[in-house]
Amino acid sequence: MELNYRFRRFLEQIRPSQGQLREFRRAHLELSRRLRADPELGRYHVATFLQGSYRRSTALRPLAGGEGSDVDLVFVTNLDPVRYGPEKALRLLRPFLQRHYANVRAQGRSFRIQCDEVDLDLVLASAPSRVDLQQMLAEARAEPLEEGFEPTEAELSAWKTEPLLIPDREADRWRQSHPLAQLASTRSKNARCNQHFLGVVKALKCWKCTASAGPQRA
C-alpha cells in the first residue's frame, strides 16, 4: 500500500499540470480550426487528430530550464503522393504557417511551431484510400451518361483503418505510419496491465530525461 501511494504521488509530480493541459488543448484546437478554415488547405483536408505522448497520456511536465512540452497534430490530406513529392507537399503548409505563427522550424517529417509555452508538431499525412476515392469521383463526374459515384460512409472513413503516408523530407520519400493503430495498441496494453502500463512508461521517460540532463546546478 505504501509503495502504491508513493508511486501515485510520484506520477502526480511528473505529469503536466492542469494549467499546462489547458494550454495544450487551447493550442492544438486553435491549430486544427485554422487548418480546417484555411481557403487553400481546406480542399485537401480529410481530418486532424492528435498523436504522440500527449494523446497517449504519457507526456511529462517539463523539467526546470528544459524544453517545453510538445503536442503532435496530424493533418490528414487527400494529397496524391505520386503527384506531390515530400518537399512539394510540405511546401503547401508554409504560407499557412507564416500567416498564423511567428516561430516555425522545419523538421525532417514535420513543422515545429513554438507557441508560448507549448511546442506543436504539425505532421502532414496522405490517406491512400481518400486519394483513390478522389480519383474515382473525378472519373465518375467526367462521364455525364453514367450515374454519379456516391461514396459510402465506410469508404469515407476507410483511412482510419489503414497506414497513412508521411512525407520524409530528408529521405525524399513517403513512409508508412499507422498512428491510430499505435494508439489502439497502447490502450489495449494499458487495459491488460490493470491500468499501470502508462504510469510505468511515464516513470521510465522521467528517468531517461533526468539521466540525460545530468546533475543540476544549484
Number of strands: 7
Q: Structural class, please?
A: alpha+beta
Cα distance spanning the termini? 34 Å
CATH superfamily name?
Answer: Beta Polymerase, domain 2
Number of domains: 1
Mean pLDDT equals 84
Helix content: 40-55%
Number of DSSP helical runs: 9
**CATH architecture descriptor:** 2-Layer Sandwich
Rg of Cα set: 20 Å
Poorly predicted residue ranges = none
Largest sheet: 5 strands, mixed
The name CATH uses for the topology is Beta Polymerase, domain 2
In order across it, which strands form the biggest sheet? 1-2-5-4-3
Strand content: 15-25%
SSE string, helices as H and strands as E: HHEHEHHEEEHHEEHH
Shape: globular
CATH class: Alpha Beta
Identify the notable features of this structure and list them briefly.
218 residues; alpha+beta; Beta Polymerase, domain 2; 5-stranded mixed sheet
Describe the structure.
The protein is of the alpha+beta class. It has one domain: Beta Polymerase, domain 2, CATH 3.30.460. The chain has 9 helices and 7 strands. The chain has helices at 2-14, 18-37, 52-56, 86-91, 94-100, 128-141, 153-156, 179-192, 197-213; strands at residues 45-51, 69-77, 104-106, 111-115, 118-126, 164-168, 173-177. The chain has a 5-stranded mixed sheet. The protein has a two-stranded antiparallel sheet with strand order 6-7. The longest helix is centred in the N-terminal third of the chain and has 20 residues, at 18-37. The two termini are 34 Å apart.
